[in-house]
Amino acid sequence: MRAIELSFDGNQAGLKINDTAAVPVRKKGQxxxxxxxxxxxxxxxxxxETGNLPKGNPILGVEVSGxxxxxxxxxxxxxTRVMGLxxxxxxxxxxxxxxxxxxxxxxxxxxxxxxxxPEVFLTAYQTLFWLGKLQATESVLIHAGASGVGTxxxxxxxxxxxAKIFVTxxxxxxxxxxxxxxxxxxxxxxxxxxxxxxxxxxxxxxxNVILDFIGASYWEKNLASIGTxxxxxxxxxLGGTIVQDVNLMTLLQKRITVSxxxxxxxxxxxxxxxxxxxxxxxxxxxxxxxxxxxxxxVFELEKAEEAQQYMASNKNKGKIILKVSN
Amino acid sequence: MRAIELSFDGNQAGLKINDTAAVPVRKKGQxxxxxxxxxxxxxxxxxxETGNLPKGNPILGVEVSGxxxxxxxxxxxxxTRVMGLxxxxxxxxxxxxxxxxxxxxxxxxxxxxxxxxPEVFLTAYQTLFWLGKLQATESVLIHAGASGVGTxxxxxxxxxxxAKIFVTxxxxxxxxxxxxxxxxxxxxxxxxxxxxxxxxxxxxxxxNVILDFIGASYWEKNLASIGTxxxxxxxxxLGGTIVQDVNLMTLLQKRITVSxxxxxxxxxxxxxxxxxxxxxxxxxxxxxxxxxxxxxxVFELEKAEEAQQYMASNKNKGKIILKVSN
Lengths: 326, 326
Fold this sequence. Notes:
The structure is a homodimer.
Chain A lengths: L2 E7 L2 E7 L11 E10 L2 H9 L12 E8 L10 E5 L8 E5 L3 E3 L6 H5 L2 H14 L7 E4 L5 H13 L3 E6 L2 H9 L4 E4 L5 H8 L5 E6 L6 H7 E9 L7 E2 L2 E2 H7 L2 E4 L7 H20 L7 E6 L3 H9 L6 E5 L3
Parallel strand pairs in A: 8-9, 8-11, 9-10, 11-12, 12-15, 16-17
Antiparallel strand pairs in A: 1-2, 3-4, 3-6, 3-17, 4-5, 5-7
Helix pairs in contact in A: 3-4, 6-7
């Protein structure tokens, strides 16, 4: 089969097309999927940059949509349209997926849309509800609101709670997208200090939950923006890893919980439990388009390198998809 | 009544004995307690140092034991022996206590022992189980193992779980006390690097939960000692507030949750819920002496100043109690 693999030129890892990759062998408890679309994720870029093969698989890609072509599952027999996380191997014509990670793909959604759902919506669900403990009448600040996880988190917070939603983004175009999804307070971080705006909008109380992809450069402002008993969830560190002078007294006095998380390295059991709860809470909402994946661009599988460069440029609003032409 | 109050000489706060303090007025939902014993806590020292009156009460003290002398509670009628948290007002002959904070004091325990239980055992319970999510077969590192919260946490972990218990302390006498409570691994932090010992003892896996009273000076070693999905609970900062160079990548890669907490400023509802669960899980264990308060010293109420100085010197193993002679 055709697949996009990491290849090494000395210590430098790059992507190469392999037209004769082996179709993966389905094990017990797995589905073999004929992949129709896969999505590009930052974890794929990190793999290329560091040369570390996630789960040892030379084929990149952690989420796909497609059709089941080999299965022993009564719930997902051959011919079923599915989407879900995979342990690598997504940038390919065929991939294996644990049954516990598979989600039915509604007829209302295209395969490109299906590939745009698992990683960002599951991450958003996990961070908002499992880690952030967001309650119905609380408030949440979502940084990088126009990103894949950002747009998913906005929609989930909007549809599953009555929480007041704050976002930051870098441009009016990105903020318009956030507004269309139902955000209450839009903050262009180039034009104003987000923590001052949040303190003002919450009458000094701060928000209950913050989803942060930025890290070090936002640390002080995040702590100023968060309220008592708040949860700060770190899911990326695009703005640097080292924070100088962290004041632990603030953590104690505000009783703040800071959680670092990554979805990809977690266990299959964790992902399966998350997937199950997510499907129960959201499948109806996807079917009636109250939740919808946001796609920025679709590339052919063979253009994976360009797709990754596009993601690295931070210009996308929503997901970047690789379409597999069979 | 006689009470120990904060008094101000210019900006400098000190303790003074007031022989004509007003007996507090019991409100609906409260008990009036004839106090037999109160305990000294670090929060009292902070109040004296900063001159901030906790909850506006000039009388210090956040936990007492005694006898109910006015009540509308069927569960705690007049004459009942009780112990529990109070919102200030503990260093006195009488104090009011919310019914939700009251715990029955078993006949097997003295009033001095009763006053030694609420703050440290509730804090230890909250941090181990509500924040630290300690599971039966996990592992926990308890810093300052011979302190009030430390000795309570060791006993609760030992009696309510099968977790492997690590402690640090500064002397062999303190470590002997910890050993008598059932600790598995004793670490004298003056003699060895605790993180190296923990990495070695856990075969590189690290511990699941850390209870830390020290803060900044232990930050790096705590992060080295903690395992994947671990919980680091900060309940004090005796070792400094400012951490230089916090690496957020460690939080993400190990998926660490850091929670700052203080019990005293929390809401009455929170304390009542915690008290209720604590009583359900522990009252039998106190009655048969499987859990026991550790008392270091008992002072007369009038010697509150000396009692606080003794706490400030960090020499105590277990609680410092003020006994009220009626």
